Please model this.
Amino acid sequence: MWLIRRGNLSTLTREYDLGMKSLEVHNQPPPLVDYNLFRTDPVLESAVVNEGAGSVTETLDLFGARVGTAEVIEWGYLANRNIPILHTHDQYGSRIDQVEFHPAWHSLMDLAITHGLHSLPWEGDASEFAHTTRIAQMYMSSQIEAGHFCPISMTTSVVPSLQMTESVADLWLPRITTRSYDPTFRPADKKSGVLLGMGMTEKQGGSDVRANTTEAFPVNGGGPGGEYRITGHKWFVSAPMCDAFLILAQAPGGLSCFLLPRWTPDGQVNTLRLMRLKDKVGNRSNASSEIEFEDTYGELVGYEGRGIPTIIEMVNGTRLDCTMAGASLMRQSLTQAAWHVKYRHAFGSALIDKPLMQNVIADLEVETEVATLMMMRLAVAFDRAAVDPQEAAFKRIALPIAKYWVTKQTTPVVREAMECLGGNGYIEESMMPRLFRESPVNAIWEGSGNVIALDLLRAVTREPDSVKAFFVDLEEFDDANADVRAAVQRAKDSLYNTSDPEAEARMMVELLAKAWAATLIVRHGDQDLLDAYSSSRLRGHHGSHFGTLATDLPIESLARRAIPAL
Ligand SMILES: Cc1cc2nc3c(=O)[nH]c(=O)nc-3n(C[C@H](O)[C@H](O)[C@H](O)COP(=O)(O)OP(=O)(O)OC[C@H]3O[C@@H](n4cnc5c(N)ncnc54)[C@H](O)[C@@H]3O)c2cc1C
Model:
């Protein structure tokens, strides 16, 4: 007689009574569900507290418990297994240009939006730690499902660009901040809440948006908030079900930023044609499309010819979120790995008790904790930048460093974590393949590595105050340790002792990132982490791969930090 009971978590829950010894399942970990992603992540909690945002921990605690439930974890699996479908036409041949999502996607979106993850910094009663709270929450929810953070991120991030034209902001901001998820396809003024996307990339150029060929013609003189008609295309537009998009197009006065709603103000469907959905490596739950415009209604945001400075306000926000997403993928993959090796036995003992596995997990923990510290410090800078010029200057340079460093570290960390699960890590029923496929995207979109390194160079040459502010922040914490002091000096020297700054821009970012990471650890007050970081990342006692920490370090205790304590 055999009985197999499956709960709603079909891939994770198993209770076997097979009555046949050879079919008994043992030496596999229990399902990792119903755990609190905040309370089981001590570095996140202490980073929030150490950055002065202790007052928000209760909110994060509640959210962490919710996103770790078996129900939400299952939504993540379902939304990725049942990917969006584009419907360009109805059965009669009329264009409809709509995307169909699985109900699990809608549940994930609803959870994020009802918690204000798309709007916290812009709400009327926003807390002084709105960015910090939001980033910590996004970091937790993205661990469970990363695709839905894209429209959430874009909706939050477009606001500073919209605010450059009062009439546009007055109309759209109240619609964004309702905390109501309304996926219906109707004019925005008839909906209880809206989402916004963006389109910059065209076939002939993504990083170099000056190559955009889409054209915009003013109606009745145009000008900020005025009507334009737009013809052309965008090669990548994620989340095409959004209610409006910020796009770039060539106006008579040069490259400009426009808001394109899905419906025109007189209640007609606007002519945004969804041509195809991209068949992507990862980010499968999220729809990314190619769009064509034909005499499409748009409103100018900012001024003609000022498209890049206008939309860059949005890009700053999405780059913060890319940093968050990288850190989040690192943490979740390490959580999965540490959970597995805690329960999996081989050659007579649990894998976590093997010195070599401890070295691998500890090394991954070092990298992941640094990513979390950078993410939280940056989020706090976003909060303080509005009231503190030093923080605004610091943010200018810290943002490209964090975006570059964290998103590039993500794939190696996720790949090594996958290996900790052995063969199980390569099987689609585990979460690892999804995390792995997702891991490169944050380094590609919102400025690929070289573009980010060149952005840093631009800040160094054109905004020297940002460099000054950055080093003021670092030097406050570089006294404690000679290695840290030397790293900060090396980073400083790299900016000025160079014969070919463009060719050396990546090296500059790396040295700045390592110096910043080291001072963040000092600021965080964690001696074990500092010792491991100094030895491996600053003094070079480290091989080419993870698991090569020097053995005089507290490897076992660092490794055990990665295991979620339920
Ligand atoms: C899943 C996904 C979703 C996306 N969603 C959107 C979206 O919603 N809206 C949108 O507008 N775009 C979107 N994109 C596009 C994305 O932002 C671009 O692909 C990215 O900015 C790079 O542009 P590109 O593809 O044209 O590459 P290119 O600009 O051709 O760059 C190719 C490579 O050259 C490097 N490079 C560029 N300039 C230089 C230089 N001066 N020196 C040295 N190296 C350089 C880049 O770093 C990159 O490695 C999405 C992309 C993906 C993968």
Residues 307-343 form the longest helix (37 residues). Residues 1-16 have pLDDT under 50 and may be disordered. The pocket of flavin-adenine dinucleotide is lined by residues 197-201, 205-208, 236-238, 280, 283, 288, 441, 444-445, 448-451, 454 (CB under 6 Å).
